[in-house]
Design goal:
Layout: H1 2-21, H2 24-35, H3 39-42, H4 44-60, H5 64-67, H6 69-89, H7 93-121, H8 125-153, H9 167-183, H10 200-210, H11 214-243, H12 249-255, H13 257-276, H14 279-297, H15 318-321, H16 325-329, H17 332-341, H18 349-377, H19 380-385, H20 388-408
Helix pairs in contact: 1-7, 1-8, 1-9, 2-11, 4-7, 4-18, 6-7, 6-9, 7-18, 8-12, 8-13, 8-17, 10-18, 11-12, 11-17, 11-18, 11-20, 14-20
């Protein structure tokens, strides 16, 4: 029962941060209209989120067990709760940048803490994979909810309306409720305690030493490439829907929920599939499916004509087809993470997760900014076709990763 309450707390934390982290695409669309910034300027919001994630993970992940996972999660929730309140009270592009800065710092603490906590409560490798897939699935349910929550507050009739800022009152309340649940949930962290005689510099050196392992090197490269694709598509899909498919602003955001829904469905079901099948052929099939969806859906997005009376029933076929790429993306990230973490002892999970967070953040920023640059410099079609390059590279890195895992098995 104690672990069930703890798991619920972890899932709620991930749900809250899913909304905040993956609102970047929606917020980009709104700040362009509200604050008069360019696409390239708005794209830096991804950097304000992801670079702090990478920096904070790099600095604190190795000795976070000394601080305490529970304390770190509480501090993160308090920080983003305060930042959410600032959005409607002090509306500006600067406040928006500071919001994502706080979200990045907080998520670095949260992800390392949550992933490391799973290593403490999982009974075995299969149990770990099951919980991790459910956790990441819950994250995507949060992303799915975000599109509809933000869409509810967006006024499509007035692109310059700031009614969308009202969503942050809801987010501040969610942070407060989650904070209360975490604070009242008992949590035994003894198994993760680091040796008492070791300094923080020793902890940091131990984390960096992991990077010299071939298995870890190919793992973080695979994670980097995968997140590059996911964030590039997820962040710019609302703008793609609005400018290429000619959908209204609110509908552009709401339709993107199909992508998030596919990711949620894929991750929630992946645990069941991967209990019965080997992870490697499953993930290879998923990568090939991603490439196939790009080649199938994008040609259908050309020459779309704006329709002032457009609705869900009259939207172009590509509106619903391209987001299905999320079904194929879904199992890859939790799949490789579970394989990597269960190959290490619990004492190394915090450091390993720190490295994962760093390279995931860098991949997310690279994907979003590269896609934004190509989108603005050329067009949305070319920007999304460009994802075929990292998708192809993931096939190769998965092969090398599988060989390294087999060597230590």
């Amino acid at each position: 029962m104690k672990n069930q309450r703890l798991i619920l707390a972890l899932f709620l934390i991930y749900f809250v941060f899913a909304i905040l982290l993956n609102s970047v695409g929606t917020v980009i669309l709104q700040v362009i209209a509200n604050y008069g910034v360019s696409k390239s300027s708005a794209s830096v919001l991804e950097g304000f989120k992801d670079f702090p994630i990478a920096i904070v993970s790099f600095l604190v992940a190795s000795f976070l067990p000394r601080i305490g996972y529970k304390n770190a999660m509480l501090a993160a929730l308090a920080l983003v709760g305060a930042a959410s309140l600032a959005m409607p009270l002090l509306p500006s592009f600067l406040t928006t940048k500071l919001l994502f800065l706080c979200v990045g710092v907080a998520f670095a603490l949260v992800k390392v803490s949550v992933y490391s906590t799973l290593g403490l409560i999982a009974r075995d490798r299969r149990h770990h994979a099951s919980i991790l897939n459910a956790l990441e699935g819950t994250f995507m349910v949060g992303v799915l909810s975000a599109y509809w929550v933000f869409g509810h507050f967006i006024d499509s009739a007035d692109p310059h309306s700031r009614s969308w800022l009202g969503v942050y009152w809801v987010l501040a309340l969610l942070c407060t409720l989650t904070f209360a649940l975490v604070a009242t949930t008992p949590f035994d962290e003894d198994a993760a305690r680091l040796p008492a005689g070791r300094s923080r510099m020793d902890d940091f050196k131990a984390m960096m030493a992991l990077l010299f392992k071939p298995l870890v090197c190919v793992f973080v490269l695979t994670a980097f490439l995968y997140v590059l694709v996911e964030q590039g598509v997820g962040t710019w899909l609302p703008t793609f829907n609005n400018e290429i498919l000619k959908l209204p602003a609110a509908m552009s955001v709401e339709v993107t929920s199909i992508f998030a829904g596919c990711l949620a469905l894929g991750r929630l079901s992946a645990g069941v599939v991967m209990r019965r099948l080997n992870w490697y052929p499953v993930l290879n099939a998923c990568v090939l499916g991603m490439g196939a969806m790009v080649l199938l859906a994008l040609p259908l997005t050309r020459h779309v004509v704006a329709d002032p009376y457009i609705s869900w029933s009259s939207a172009p076929l590509a509106t619903f087809l391209f987001p299905l790429i999320g079904l194929f993306m879904a199992p890859i990230y939790p799949g490789i993470n579970s394989v990597m973490l269960t190959s290490l002892p619990p004492q190394q999970h915090s450091a390993m997760t720190g490295l994962l967070v760093i390279f995931s953040a860098l991949g997310g920023t690279t994907g979003s900014m590269l896609t934004g640059y190509v989108f603005g410099r050329y067009n949305g079609h070319f920007a999304f076709y460009l994802t075929l390059l990292p998708i192809t590279l993931v096939l190769f890195t998965l092969y090398v990763f599988k060989r390294q895992v087999d060597r230590i098995a």
